[in-house]
């Protein structure tokens, strides 16, 4: 019969089979794709120089969906994730502010997303693909602003 370990025993080498580390888990944790997408979306928004996430269509559709009473905000808008048991891959579409250095911004976004997702989920991020779909000019109205002013979606974007 094995003895109950004392506090001194807890500091012994794990090479001794009597004091081997316990099994890693006693169950499974499954993360929904939306969880990873929301974490990545929040991490991307933390980087200065990002105007919006998603393409023009995605932002327009999301703005209309946000007006529906009881609808949830689209934190993961513009982000697609593939989630496995141990790894994840993320694709993100961005609209950047005019004047930012896009390669530098993309590197910052990528690093922030990887750090946040790996820290919060324990998944290894194998890649973060970034598509810059537009540059927001200081004097041009945003899709959501234009809809609020005119009540309609712009014909051409």
From TrEMBL:
Region of interest (Disordered), ranges: 1-23
Transmembrane segments: none
Top-level taxonomic group: Bacteria
One Pfam family recorded for the sequence: Asp23
Protein family (similarity comment): Belongs to the asp23 family.
Protein name: Asp23/Gls24 family envelope stress response protein
Originating organism: Kitasatospora camelliae
């Amino acid at each position: 019969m094995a003895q109950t370990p004392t506090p001194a025993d807890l500091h012994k080498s794990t090479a001794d089979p009597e004091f081997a580390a316990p099994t890693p888990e006693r169950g499974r944790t499954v993360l929904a794709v939306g969880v990873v997408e929301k974490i990545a979306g929040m991490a991307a928004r933390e980087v200065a120089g990002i105007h919006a996430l998603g393409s023009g269509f995605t932002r327009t559709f999301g703005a209309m969906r946000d007006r529906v009473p009881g609808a949830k905000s689209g934190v993961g808008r513009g982000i697609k994730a593939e989630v496995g048991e141990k790894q994840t891959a993320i694709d993100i579409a961005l609209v950047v502010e005019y004047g930012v250095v896009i390669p530098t911004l993309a590197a910052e976004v990528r690093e922030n997303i990887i750090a946040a997702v790996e820290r919060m989920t324990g998944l290894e991020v194998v890649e973060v693909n970034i598509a810059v779909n537009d540059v927001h000019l200081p004097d041009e109205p945003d899709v959501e602003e234009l809809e609020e002013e005119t009540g309609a979606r712009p014909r051409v974007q």
